[in-house]
Amino acid sequence: MKKSVVPVAVLAGALASASPAAPRPAASPAAKKDPAAEINTPRPDARVVEFETHEGTWMSVDVSPDGKTLVLDLLGDVYSMPVAGGEARPLTSGPAWDAQPRFSPDGTTIAFSSDRGGMENVWLMDADGSHPRALTTEKGAYVRSPAWTPDGVYVVARKEDAKRAGIPPVELWLYHREGGGGIKLVSSDEMNNSSGPAFSKDGRYLYFSARQPRFSYTPTFPPSPTGRRRWRGPAATSPSAPTASSRAWAPIGSCG
Questions:
Q1: 199: closest CA among 239, 240, 151?
Q2: Which helix (H) or strand (E) holds 171?
Q3: Could you say which DSSP state residue 188 is in?
Q4: Rounded to 10 degrees, what is the CA torsion of 231, 235, 240, 242?
Q5: What CA–CA distances, in Å, run from 102 to 22, 110, 120, 124, 236?
């Protein structure tokens, strides 16, 4: 019995030693950091410069719907302060360039442009500066100059192609406040360099400035470079599917 057991044990050991070792799981590659995701993180060698000012230039200013608060941009940060005067309180800070703040019609949300995601896009934040979130996430276009629709459901913004050199096409796009890819309101094939969108108080018209689509160093402007587009608002059957199919152009001087 002992002789029959020993060879079996030896054979089992030999088989075990001859069997290939189980492959080790490959180490997962380290996740590549996105530099754009850390654009608002100060560099370790950054210096802090403090100063006080009582005036600024090239600033965007908006007034809250209740007429009590100003929101403004200065040197890439957004501030709020009482209309009656006082100290400005920062709503955003950091290396990212934040600008062009606009109150929503109900005063609870502020739309603004920011490059904190690596590219200038439209962002939203609560009126006290909390809960910042990206409304657009373009990687090949700059999205700036937000303007709210009178119902506060949509934001119109100026979208500029960032992939082309020279003078790129610029269009107006409409975005739902909850996100999405947006829809084109004014094509660069119709008018170029569309900017400064603003709605009429009754919400019937969207006013903006633009130039003829064909570029020239000696452009021939129409009687007035500012026009309007009739705004019908979102389709009644689908809140997320706005339409601008019915529209009309007219010089602003003839819009009685």
A1: 151
A2: strand 170-176
A3: T
A4: -30
A5: 62, 5, 16, 9, 26
Are the beta carbons of 50 and 80 closer than 8 angstroms? Answer: no
d(CA 127, CA 91): 8
User: Whole-angstrom Cα distance, residue 25 to residue 95?
Assistant: 41
List, for residues 21-79, the tens digit of each pLDDT value: 556 666 566 667 666 667 788 888 888 888 888 889 999 999 999 999 999 999 999 99
- What pLDDT is attached to residue 101? 98
Dihedral-angle region of residue 62 (phi above 0 means left; psi in -120 to 50 means alpha; beta otherwise): beta
Q: Alpha-carbon Rg of the chain, whole angstroms?
A: 29
- The letter for the amino acid at 163 is K
Which residues neighbour 96 within 8 Å (Cβ) at sequence distance 6 or greater?
A: 39, 40, 76, 114, 115, 116
Q: How far apart are CA 197 and CA 156, in angstroms?
A: 7
Residue ranges and CATH numbers for the domains of the chain are 101-254 (2.120.10.30)
SS (H, E, C) 104-159: CCCCCEEEEEECCCCCCEEEEEECCCCCCEECCCCCCEEEEEEEECCCCCEEEEEE
Coil/strand/helix, residue 160: strand
Cβ(210)–Cβ(227) below 8 Å: yes
Tokens coding 96: 């990212």
